[in-house]
């Protein structure tokens, strides 16, 4: 025996040393692998440099493979249609941004060219976007006020003969140039571009889009649309009121409108009514017969052309005092370096601009990539949109983003690649170089009509509220809160409120999730909520508890309260009650009375200690909806295991995923060597129930001795 014991000891020592050496070798191998990967990632070879350039400019990959005969006509058609749509939209959205129309044309031109070079989506149309223009306009108005300029209404038109080569600009126009050149979004992406490895490696920056749910985006777009609509109403009536700033702009603007409604310009009111009727009718007919039309009707361009001719030859500005766009110069302004001191002031405004621009672009890119069976790279999209803002900021442009309406038009007119974006840029360039002065007499109320009619899609979201509420009440609440905050407070605050509120809703859902006791579906191995389904069978002596959320520190108490409430048993209170009863029994027996306080004999005391309300001997916890456990969650399960064990009630876990099992192992739930794991963990609820019933039969067969029934769990 001694030799055998010594031999066994030596074998154990040898195996332990072998395991230690093996672990050391594994650590060394891991270290070598990490160093090799680090050396490989830091090395610079011609092939890696080529791949970097090709990835940074995706056009170098797909343009050489361009199928000219197959793609060219669709790209030309879609490019021409988008270019025709871009011109009136660019002029109209300049009202939202509080800038001259020429800057919107610059933005549309540069954005299409740069995205052609750097974008990974074949169909997305990048350029001016109503929400982005609105957010830029709020920053512009604030900076103008800080500089002492008046925002009461129309700024004086620029001086000169239409050429940007002379320097005779008014102070207001010059200051507008300064603010546009500083482009809030470009500052954020500019910093990102300086430190791409650090910020992209740590943050990946695409993580922000995960917190913008569909409800948040829809609510934000609808609330911002109400703000845009409100900002354009004064142009419809020709009322001269100050542009409201700060929180509550929507309410203040409507108050000012009703106060000054008597000053409405009859010419602008009539023009607005006619334009809205024409535009809405054309849009409705276009939607109705879109399958029969090869390309959308250029209604906006027709309305602008006719309105400009009527305004010019009817002298509506001189005779009726109707507000017009004014001189739109031709050519390009010389590049100008943004003022970095002003960049610091707008850095905070850059964050929501960058987030909204990036999220809308990536969302649209992914949607159309999925539809047409190709892939995009989200990080490259961030760089593409970033450079669509960085480079044009030196050429007096403002922030850009992908736009859903133009993208839909682009795909419906046969777009195949971003060559269509180059065609659109050429159309805009034609306007910039030659045709811009022709829009001098265009009434601002016409531009306002175009903007308001373009908001139909976002405003129609109100009709979807009942259906949204029927599908998910919590998402509807997120939509309402985000929309209300965006409209009544401000767009930036609304976006922040929407993100925070949606995250709070997720926390609330996990803090107070659904809990249920399960019953067996007759003649099956499946179990469901006995309150949701009828004719379920109750398993005798077994309670099956389901918790539909991760178990972590925030919902620990709710887990325990729900468990105690549904099983009608709090093990802590029951244990305290038993201790109190035992204490009274002992005190009674010390006095020499062999009868208990309840009149029972001593032999009957044990029966009295088991309360009648405990109608189960095993608790099965359905862990199928528990995605993870933290330390508090593991300790909670260990706590109920101990508490119920004191009452001779077994606790079994069923349907645990691998991460939950791993957390339980590391937390010591199954013992030091996992010796009890097979007895406590089951892959299905039915297996746990069968094991419990088998254990109960063997316990009764052996006279109720739990120690003898242990073999029934293996």
From TrEMBL:
Q: How does it sit in the membrane?
A: Multi-pass membrane protein
The record's listing under Gene3D superfamilies reads:
STAS domain (3.30.750.24)
Q: What organism does the record attribute this protein to?
A: Malurus cyaneus samueli
Domain named STAS is located at: 532-692
Q: Write down what this protein is called.
A: Solute carrier family 26 member 1
Q: Which InterPro entries match?
A: S04_transporter_CS, SLC26A/SulP_dom, SLC26A/SulP_fam, STAS_dom, STAS_dom_sf
Its subcellular locations are: Membrane
PANTHER family linked to this entry: SULFATE TRANSPORTER (PTHR11814)
- The membrane spanning regions, by residue number, are 71-95, 124-140, 187-207, 219-237, 257-281, 342-362, 383-405, 425-455, 476-504
Tell me the keywords, alphabetical order.
Answer: Membrane, Transmembrane, Transmembrane helix
Q: Which GO terms describe its molecular function?
A: secondary active sulfate transmembrane transporter activity
- For this UniProt entry, what is the primary localization, expressed as one broad class? membrane
Q: Which GO terms describe its cellular component?
A: membrane
């Amino acid at each position: 025996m001694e030799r055998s014991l010594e031999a066994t000891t030596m074998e154990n020592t040898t195996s332990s040393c072998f395991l230690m050496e093996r672990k050391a070798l594994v650590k060394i191998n891991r270290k070598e692998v990490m160093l090799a990967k680090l050396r490989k990632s830091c090395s610079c070879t011609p092939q890696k440099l080529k791949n970097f350039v090709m990835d940074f400019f995706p056009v170098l990959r797909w343009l050489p493979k361009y199928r000219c005969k197959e793609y060219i006509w669709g790209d030309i058609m879609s490019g021409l249609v988008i270019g025709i749509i871009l011109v009136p939209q660019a002029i109209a959205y300049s009202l939202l941004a509080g800038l001259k129309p020429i800057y919107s044309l610059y933005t549309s031109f540069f954005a299409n060219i740069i995205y052609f070079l750097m974008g990974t989506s074949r169909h997305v149309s990048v350029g001016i976007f109503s929400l982005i223009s609105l957010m830029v306009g709020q920053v512009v108005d604030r900076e103008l006020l800080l500089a002492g300029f008046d925002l009461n209404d129309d700024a004086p038109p620029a001086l000169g003969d239409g050429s940007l080569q002379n320097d005779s600009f008014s102070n207001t126009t010059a200051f507008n140039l300064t603010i546009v050149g500083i482009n809030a979004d470009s500052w954020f992406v500019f910093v990102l571009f300086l430190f791409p490895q650090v910020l992209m490696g740590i943050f990946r920056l695409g993580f922000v889009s995960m917190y913008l749910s569909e409800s948040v985006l829809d609510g934000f777009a609808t609330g911002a649309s109400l703000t845009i609509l409100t900002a354009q109403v004064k142009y419809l009536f020709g009322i001269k009121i100050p542009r409201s700033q700060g929180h509550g702009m929507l309410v203040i603007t409507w108050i000012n409108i009703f106060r000054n409604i008597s000053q409405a310009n009859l010419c602008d009111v009539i023009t607005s009514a006619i334009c809205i009727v024409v535009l809405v009718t054309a849009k409705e007919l276009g939607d109705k017969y879109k399958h029969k039309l090869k390309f959308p009707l250029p209604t906006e361009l027709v309305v602008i052309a006719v309105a400009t001719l009527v305004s010019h030859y009817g002298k509506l500005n001189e005779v009726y005092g109707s507000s017009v766009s004014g001189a739109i110069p031709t050519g390009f302004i010389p590049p100008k370096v943004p003022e970095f001191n002003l960049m610091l002031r707008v850095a905070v405004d850059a964050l929501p601009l960058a987030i909204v621009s990036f999220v809308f672009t990536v969302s649209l890119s992914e949607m159309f990539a999925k539809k047409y069976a190709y892939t995009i790279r989200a990080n490259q999209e961030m760089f593409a949109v970033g450079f669509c803002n960085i480079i044009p900021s030196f050429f007096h442009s403002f922030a850009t983003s992908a736009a859903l309406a133009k993208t839909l038009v682009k795909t419906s007119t046969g777009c195949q690649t971003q060559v269509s974006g180059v065609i659109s840029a050429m159309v805009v360039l034609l306007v910039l170089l030659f045709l811009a002065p022709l829009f001098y007499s265009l009434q601002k109320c016409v531009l306002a009509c175009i903007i308001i009619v373009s908001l139909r899609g976002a405003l129609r979201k109100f009709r979807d509220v009942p259906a949204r509420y029927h599908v998910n009440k919590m998402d509807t609440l997120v939509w309402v809160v985000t929309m209300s905050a965006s409209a009544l407070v401000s767009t930036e605050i609304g976006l922040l409120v929407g993100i925070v509120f949606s995250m709070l809703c997720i926390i609330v859902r996990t803090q107070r999730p659904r809990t249920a006791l399960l019953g067996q579906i007759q003649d099956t191995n499946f179990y469901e909520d006995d309150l949701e389904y009828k004719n379920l069978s109750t398993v005798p002596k077994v309670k099956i508890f389901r918790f539909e959320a991760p178990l972590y520190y925030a919902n620990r108490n709710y887990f325990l309260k729900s468990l105690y409430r549904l099983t009608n048993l709090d093990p802590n209170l029951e244990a305290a009650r038993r201790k109190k009863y035992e204490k009274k029994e002992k005190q009674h027996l010390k006095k020499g009375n062999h009868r208990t306080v309840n009149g029972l004999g001593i032999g009957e005391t044990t029966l009295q200690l088991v309360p009648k309300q405990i109608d189960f001997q095993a608790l099965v916890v359905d862990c199928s909806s528990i995605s993870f456990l933290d330390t508090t969650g593991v300790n909670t399960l260990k706590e109920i295991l101990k508490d119920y064990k004191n009452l001779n009630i077994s606790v079994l876990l069923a349907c645990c995923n691998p991460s939950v099992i791993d957390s339980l192992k590391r937390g010591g739930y199954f013992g030091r060597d996992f010796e009890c794991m097979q007895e406590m963990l089951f892959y299905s609820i039915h297996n746990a129930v069968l094991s419990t019933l088998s254990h109960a039969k063997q316990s009764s067969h052996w006279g109720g001795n739990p120690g003898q029934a242990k073999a029934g769990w293996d």
